[in-house]
UniProtKB/TrEMBL annotation:
It comes from Candidatus Scalindua rubra. This is 8-amino-7-ketopelargonate synthase. Homodimer. Pfam families: Aminotran_1_2. Keywords: Biotin biosynthesis, Pyridoxal phosphate, Transferase.
Amino acid sequence: MENISNELEKIKEFGLYRDLNVVENVQGSHVKIKSKTYVSFCSNNYLGLANHPLVIRAVKDAVEKYGWGAGASRLISGNMKLHEALEDEISKFKRKESTIVFPTGYMANIGTICSLVSSGDLVICDRLNHASIIDGCRLSGADFRIYPHCDTEKLESIFKKSSKYPRKLIVTDTVFSMDGDLAPLPDIVEIARKYKAMVMVDEAHGTGVFGEKGRGVIEHFNLNEKVNIVMGTLSKAIGSLGGFVSGDIDLINYLRNKARTFMYTTALPPAVCAASIAGIKLIQKDLSLRKSLWHNVRYLKERLKLLKLNVISSESPIIPIVIGDAKKAVNVSRFLFNRGVLIPAIRPPTVPDESSRLRITVMSTHTKDDLERLLDVLEDVQRQI
Ligand SMILES: Cc1ncc(COP(=O)(O)O)c(C=O)c1O
């Protein structure tokens, strides 16, 4: 245990220690911590659905009808009506034949990648893909190649040397979670077609946010027919919990039979599925949610241009301000906190060394006053750094 304590001290010394805040009210654009209210600019609850009255109603009704726990894995006796209803709802939403739901997005990525490729195959990954994709690639046992962020020339050069592999898989985030930019999907899909590789996309931050109907970045680029493995999470814009993969029936039946993170874990509580169904329905019905989200994003980005901060130009509601040094980023985050704004510092290993940052995420429920308050505090930050 002494080694553990020493390592912990080192983590602190480098400014990389993580503390937990305790939120004492509901997850909205304002959160209460130690009885004080903060404007939150760090939640993935983009559309405010985690706390929407229709979602809460759906959960209460489901608990009345089905109780809470699922009691077993899906393959034993835990597969309940609402799991099936959720999978059907996602398939319709994502315009795919079939869907498999996992307890989390993390588990969806691990289970799917490890089912699709193994020793003797090739898996290729953008350098800034989410940790769950990287972990899935490592665990799969396949030969694992990483290309520099969004560099399709390097991607193609990897494929040029890939003829010996029987199965090839490229996996990419559609919206990169720490930079907020989009993958060059049309090019990726074209390169994969040329080299006969499978394409898997992670729509964690695309679902509910991009596309005319909120179906994701694939809809935005009109690539639904060309991408056959679509992963997403129910925990961000949908405001609930769980991960999913949508695709053709054979793919989904294959995953039901192969994905260990689906087979060997207890099914989600049915009321969680009810929340997700309600969230997906709201995304399709209430277009004002997405409209106000994008209105806020555009407003904030325009105003941020006037500040002398290192704001990375992004294409999504994720707006990073790169500070660099981890300790400095923590200090800036603390400054914001003292002024009533919650944006924890994102530091290595979540982002590369010397690129610690404030990662702003905008919500549809932020008011103009909320945005002005953030801008006011950032103006003071700019004077200090
Ligand atoms: C791109 C991406 N993929 C996957 C996940 C994991 O999803 P979940 O939180 O549902 O496990 C996340 C969330 O952190 C993410 O940002």
